[in-house]
Amino acid sequence: MVRLILASQSPARTKLLAEAGIRHSILVSDVDEDAVQASYGVTDPHDTALLLARAKAEAVAALPDAEGALVLGCDSVFEFDGEAHGKPYTSEIARERMLRMSGNTGVLHTGHWLVDCRDTHSDDDGEGMGTGATLGTVASAEVSFLEMDPAEIDAYIATGEPLHCAGSFTIDGLGGAFIRKVDGDPHTVVGLSVSTLRSLLAAANVRITDLWRG
Asked: Annotated catalytic, 81?
């Protein structure tokens, strides 16, 4: 049986996979995102999302528990006015960002990286044999926001939801009320594109249907 490990502690990502019927387990990496970015000097939001997704996937793939599994790392970065916005963590940063985002448009980049940790040697017919693949891609979606007045922004921040989300918003929670439209795969905005995962799995000779529950 093919095993998929999600190298992310994001509740939204694991919920998305569960709702898509995809069997998976979770192993969280201890990657220092700031240190990874500093070591590579990456500033482009698109490339940053892919770099961090790869760092998380490879960190988990190196763990003994990942042996024989496929490991998926993901990371999301919101690009607004040419700047990369990760998690704001503080109310002050979230409020400043959301006031600028009100009535405007940005791009959410989600990096995906898959590592095939299955054995590449087999004595049988080779079915289910690992490919040794390690590959990734970025899925991006344009997000347009409605006008938000300061009172609404303060009320949203008070819930705590936007403080730990790339770009200071969600589409699958309270923040969905402020999104006018999405051009691209909506799953990308949640933080994991299932169609992108399907393509990466295919490169490792795995059908996404092999991971469906039941």
From this structure: no
